[in-house]
Specification:
Oligomer: single chain
Length: 331
């Protein structure tokens, strides 16, 4: 899953894959800077492609290191990179601050662990589609608007089609893991907001990543043992971390300086489709027509929920700061 490149400061508005609004004075889509937004859009799309192809690479690495081993390598490398870049301050924080960042880190570890267990059993596209239901449900519940029943209905229709009426075409355990990852994604959004209010910049994210890596290390060692020390495996694991975390963070941070949150959110809502494409190109995971339609319905529901949230904020004349979704998926 793509963890967010910025941690929000307010949980007031929740929408799938949304990121902080641009700073005052920054051109937004539809305004004078519309042409200038093409560059940031390209950066976001590149970040999304990087995340999902990183997920596809992770799936191909699983025979070498196992699902838990791959998660361990990704979290460790991401933690090292974030520590080096952010250099977070560890002193001067209260017990409540540390409690929040620890829960955030454990949520992150669970989210990634469950997702990688899912893609070890079911294709990448359906896994990301099921996972995105977590933040989508959070968005619908937080909005409390009747129109969101439409988006919820679309999402449920997509899930029904994806499972063929009973998930007979997908491994039940993989489906359960993907739904669990989605629930953790929703929890991740909530705790990322709380962490953002207690820690400056991305310090909380860096510290939480360390917590996640340390928490997951025993699981990775138990499953993979000395396989984690094989140079080829380490190199591939580092590539997964770069593609799924480091590169998307950088691209999104650059894009969000000039890109409105609503545009970012809609672009990130396309991740199930990008994941399905990556699964097909890298792993040979072809989708049936029914599964493709299911993914399209969930994408439409996600985009609709995003537009509803944005429209609600504008109607009230509020400058809202929507919550990001880690990225897209855990891929």
């Amino acid at each position: 899953m793509n963890t967010p490149s910025a941690v929000p400061s307010s949980p007031a508005s929740v929408a799938p894959a949304m990121a902080p609004a641009p700073a005052p004075g920054v051109p937004t889509a539809g305004g004078p800077g519309r042409r200038g937004a093409l560059g940031p859009v390209g950066l976001v799309l590149a970040g999304g492609i990087s995340v999902q192809f990183g997920g596809a690479l992770a799936v191909s690495l699983m025979p070498r290191a196992g699902a838990l081993g791959v998660v361990t390598l990704r979290l460790l490398v991401a933690a090292v990179v974030l520590l080096a870049v952010c250099r977070p301050r560890v002193r001067g924080h209260s017990r409540a601050d540390w409690g929040t960042v620890v829960v955030f880190g454990l949520t992150m570890a669970a989210m990634n662990g469950l997702f990688y267990q899912a893609v070890d059993r079911i294709p990448l596209g359906p896994a990301v589609t099921l996972e995105v239901l977590g933040p989508l449900a959070l968005s619908v519940l937080a909005s409390r608007r009747a129109v969101n029943l439409v988006w919820a209905g679309l999402a449920l229709g997509g899930v029904f089609l994806l499972g063929g009426g009973g998930f007979s075409s997908l491994d039940p355990a993989g489906v359960a893991f993907a739904l669990g990852a989605g629930a953790m994604w929703a929890a991740y959004i909530v705790f990322s907001a709380r962490t953002g209010r207690r820690f400056p910049q991305a310090d909380g994210l860096a510290l939480a990543m360390v917590v996640a890596a340390v928490a997951f290390l025993p699981l990775g060692i138990a499953e993979s043992g000395s396989k984690l020390l094989v140079p080829t495996t380490v190199a591939l694991g580092a590539a997964v971390a770069v593609l799924s975390s480091v590169l998307p963070y950088t691209l999104e941070l650059l894009a969000l300086r000039r890109l409105p949150a609503s545009t970012f959110a809609i672009l990130m809502s396309l991740e199930p489709a990008v994941a399905a494409t990556a699964g097909f190109l890298v792993l040979g995971q072809a989708l049936s027509v029914t599964q493709a339609l299911a993914i399209a319905l969930v994408i439409a529901a996600s985009m609709g929920a995003v537009r509803t949230q944005v429209g609600r904020g504008r109607a009230k004349g509020l400058e809202r700061e929507p919550l990001p979704a880690a990225g897209g998926s855990a891929g």
